[in-house]
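Class prep. Protein, please:
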Amino acid sequence: MSEKIYEYKDEDNWFIGKMTGHNMVSGWGVDQAIIKKIDDLFDGISAELDWEKPKGYDVSVLRYQSPFLLLSFIVDMINQETERDIKVEHHAGAVLLREEEKLLAVYLPDGGVSMAAFFPDNREGIGETILIATRNEGKTKEFRHLFADLGYRVENLNDYPDLPEVAETGVTFEENARLKAETISRITGKMVLADDSGLKVDALGGLPGVWSARFSGPDATDDRNNAKLLHELAMVFDQKDRSAQFHSTLVVAAPDKESLVVEADWPGYIAFQPKGDHGFGYDPIFIVGETSRHAAELDAEEKNQLSHRGQAVRKLMEVFPSWQTK
C-alpha cells in the first residue's frame, strides 16, 4: 500500500490524506454533519473500487469551504491508487461522481436542488416506471396508488397506443399473464405487470377458467356469460356442489430478470340467480365464502379486502421490493 501523502491547500480549504486500511474523513472546526455526509457517500461506492487490500482513505480536513473541492480531493486519491477515471462535476447545484457513462453518486447540498433545474428536459420522465398491461384506467389507478409508496411511476397500455395486442393463447392463468408481461417487457425494455384472472367452477372441471371473459362465445358479455354458467349448472341442485373460486395470477417481468409470479384464490359458490348491483363479470352469481352475500353486493372497499385480486396484490407488495433489488 502506498505511503504517499496527499495535500490540497488554498485560502479556504486545506485537506491532507493518505491511503490506509479504512475509510475516514475527519475534521477540526468543520461542520461534522457535512463531513459525515461526504464520508457516507464514499462508503457507498468504495466496495466497487478495485484497490489493493487493505483499502481505504484517511483524510484530515483542516479548513473547509467547498464540498466540490473536498470531493475532488478524495476522488483524485482514489484515481491515483486504483487507476480509475472517476470525474467530479457540478450540475444544477449538486455534485456528480461519474465514471464514463455510469453515475456513481450524487452529493446534494442542504435543502436539495430544484428538480426543474436538475432535469430540465424530462421532468415527467424522472424515476423508474412500471407498465401495467391493461387499458383499464380503474385498474391502473389502483396500481398507481400501491406502487407510489415504493417510488414508482405507473403507466398503462394507453400510453403506448402502437404496441401490438398480445394474444392470450395460454391454457393456464400463469401462461397468459406471462405472455402479456414478458412480451411487452421484451418489446419496450420496461418493467411490466400483467394479470390474468377468472372463475373456476369445480363441478365443471375448473371451467370457465382462462376462458372466463369469453365463456359464452366471441360476442360474450357479462350477462351472457352468467346465463351460460347458470345453464351449465342447472342440474346441480345442492349448493355445496356448486363450489367455485375466483383466481388471480400476477406476473411482473423485466429485462434480464426472472419473472415474479404471485397467485391468490377467493373461494365461494355459484348462486342459483343473480343478486347485487356492484362489481362486474360473474360477481352477481358468486356467493362469497360461507356467507350468503353475493360479490355484487359488496362495495369496492369490501371487495378489495376479500377478492382474489386484492389478495394477490397484497402478496405482490410483500415480495416485490426484495425481487426488484435482485
User: Anything to note?
Assistant: The two ends are 34 Å apart (CA to CA). The chain has two domains: 5-118, 129-325. The helical segments are 32-46, 67-82, 115-118, 137-148, 173-188, 222-232, 300-306, 308-324.
